[in-house]
């Protein structure tokens, strides 16, 4: 078994106790729809952090464009993770924002299916459960429906989905993490050495800290030195298009604290259509902007990945 396979198995095992926010707990043996995809996507973020430490980014043999040409029923777990990682944007290596790190994944059609495929693998869903959950997620997060006879998404007007201008709205999962209590992340990347991936744990050696048994590279071992106020965070999140026009979220859900002491996981819904005008018309990219930290954080998303 390869090192990457070991890491994937380990992160799968430890995800529920590490990544999920306090309110996202298992209730009566089931999860809400949003909690299902949130678990899969937070797992992907954690996996990215571990892969960044190990420099093992090649999860599958195929790239994003190759994978989405196949029906989602044929996607392996590694291919689903490749889709999620390909659609995720972050500021991990941005030296202008040393303390606040942001990961964001928009709920593109492929992301909805891939996150549900990861959930299916972990929780052994039946084919019917997978389809029902995917349909509900598509409707709630992107306003789309699924025609399983052709394995294609359908917009709210009954047209087969071809591109971003058919989206009336889109959900983002945004993970914000305060790492001011840890060592500098860029320095950590240079110091990490994998020591052991056996016995269900990932043991790494970080020269400045000594041996560590952890899955998290953002080793928040001290009280954060930077504690920004996020009481009005909902008002500081924007989406910008190529024409430099911006929109605010329709709603932001999931914030737990008024100060960013550790991490926050937010579900953010943006409305795209307003009185016949589509926000993404004439744009090739969209930009998620979060203001009010050390510097404004700006993540770029290529619209060509919205299939």
Fold blueprint:
Elements: H1 3-18, H2 33-54, H3 64-67, H4 77-87, E1 89-90, E2 100-106, H5 109-123, H6 127-142, E3 145-147, E4 152-154, E5 169-178, H7 185-191, E6 192-196, E7 203-206, E8 210-213, E9 237-241, E10 246-247, E11 251-253, E12 263-271, E13 273-274, E14 277-278, E15 285-290, E16 297-302
Antiparallel strand pairs: 1-2, 2-5, 3-4, 5-12, 6-7, 7-8, 9-10, 9-15, 11-12, 13-14, 15-16
Helix pairs in contact: 1-2, 2-5, 4-5, 5-6
Report a brief summary of the structure.
With 307 residues, the chain is an alpha+beta fold.
Please, could you describe this protein's structure?
It is a single chain. The protein has 307 residues and is an alpha+beta fold. The protein folds into two domains: 3-174, no CATH class; 226-305, Immunoglobulin-like (Sandwich), CATH 2.60.40. It contains seven helices and 16 strands. It has helices spanning 3-18, 33-54, 64-67, 77-87, 109-123, 127-142, 185-191; strands spanning 89-90, 100-106, 145-147, 152-154, 169-178, 192-196, 203-206, 210-213, 237-241, 246-247, 251-253, 263-271, 273-274, 277-278, 285-290, 297-302. Strands 1-2-5-12-11 form a five-stranded antiparallel β-sheet. The protein has a four-stranded antiparallel β-sheet with strand order 10-9-15-16, with no helix packed on it. Helix 1 (3-18) crosses helix 2, helix 2 (33-54) crosses helix 5 (109-123) and helix 4 (77-87) runs antiparallel to helix 5. Residues 1-31, 53-60 and 183-221 have low confidence and may be disordered.
């Amino acid at each position: 078994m390869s090192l990457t396979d070991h890491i994937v198995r380990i992160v799968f095992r430890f995800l529920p106790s590490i990544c999920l926010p306090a309110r996202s707990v298992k209730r009566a043996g089931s999860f809400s729809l949003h909690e299902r995809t949130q678990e899969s996507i937070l797992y992907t973020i954690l996996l990215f952090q571990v892969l960044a430490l190990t420099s093992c980014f090649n999860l599958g043999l195929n790239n994003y464009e190759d994978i989405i040409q196949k029906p989602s029923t044929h996607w392996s777990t590694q291919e689903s993770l490749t889709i999620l990682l390909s659609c995720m944007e972050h500021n991990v290596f941005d030296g202008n924002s040393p303390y606040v790190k942001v990961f964001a994944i928009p709920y593109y059609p492929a992301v909805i299916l891939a996150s549900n495929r990861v959930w299916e693998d972990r929780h052994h869903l039946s084919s019917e459960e997978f389809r029902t959950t995917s349909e509900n997620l598509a409707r709630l997060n992107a306003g789309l429906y699924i025609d399983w006879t052709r394995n294609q998404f359908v917009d709210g007007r009954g047209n087969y989905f071809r591109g971003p201008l058919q989206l009336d709205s889109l959900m983002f999962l945004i993970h914000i993490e305060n790492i001011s209590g840890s060592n500098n992340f860029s320095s950590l990347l240079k110091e990490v050495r994998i020591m052991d991936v056996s016995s269900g744990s990932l043991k790494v050696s970080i020269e400045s800290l000594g041996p560590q048994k952890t899955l998290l590279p953002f080793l928040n071992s001290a009280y954060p030195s930077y504690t920004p106020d996020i009481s009005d965070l909902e008002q500081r999140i924007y989406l910008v298009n190529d024409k430099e026009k911006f929109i605010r979220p329709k709603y932001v859900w999931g914030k737990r604290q008024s100060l960013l002491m550790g991490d926050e996981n937010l579900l953010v819904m943006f409305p795209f259509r307003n009185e016949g005008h589509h926000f993404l018309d004439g744009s090739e990219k969209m930009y998620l902007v979060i203001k009010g930290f050390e510097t404004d954080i700006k993540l770029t998303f290529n619209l060509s990945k919205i299939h």
